[in-house]
Design goal:
The chain is built from five helices and no strands. Helix 2 packs across helix 5 and helix 4 packs across helix 5. The chain is mainly α. Bound molecules: heme C (HEC). Heme C binds next to helix 2 and helix 4. The site of heme C (HEC) has 20 residues, from helix 2 and helix 4. InterPro entries: Cyt_c-like_dom, Cyt_c-like_dom_sf. Keywords: Heme, Iron, Metal-binding, Signal. One of its GO terms (molecular function) is electron transfer activity. This is Cytochrome c55X.
Length: 107
């Protein structure tokens, strides 16, 4: 006989996993994304995100731009420009978190 509490815990785990794609990245993943942002994105957009080969990505520069438009650019890249598609490396929740970092945290 399986204790009822174990069944409930199992169900909760199943539910959490089912919604994992929409949830925030784990703490470890967030740390990786912060490094990616400064090192990989920063190599083109500037370490302080004030622009370089890529356009400025400061909170100021992105004000007025829609999250969904930014997410599409990050996921699919910009054909004809050096901005690469990150979709193969980043999940949708990773990309949402990067946009959150761009808007909310100073470089
Ligand atoms: C190889 C260089 C390169 C790398 C690496 C790069 N970008 Fe870009 N990015 C560009 C260029 C070039 C543009 C287009 C600038 C323009 O419009 O002239 C761009 C445009 C963008 C835009 C649209 C900006 C706007 O104002 O519409 C966003 C958002 C963006 N990049 C985010 C990122 C993120 C996040 C990363 C890291 C995951 C990243 N980029 C990595 C070169 C790069």
């Amino acid at each position: 006989m399986i204790p009822r509490r174990a069944v409930v815990a199992g169900l909760l785990t199943a539910l959490t996993c089912a919604t994992a794609t929409a949830a925030e990245p784990s703490a470890a993943r967030k740390a990786e994304l912060a490094i990616l942002l400064s090192q990989d994105c920063g190599s083109c957009h500037g370490l302080t995100r004030h622009g370089g080969l890529g356009s400025p990505l400061t909170a100021e520069a992105l004000r007025g731009q829609d999250d969904s438009v930014l997410a599409t650019v990050i996921r699919d890249g910009l054909p004809g420009k050096p901005m690469p598609p990150w979709g193969p490396l980043l999940s949708d929740s990773d990309i949402d978190w990067l946009i959150h970092l761009l808007r909310e945290t100073p470089p």
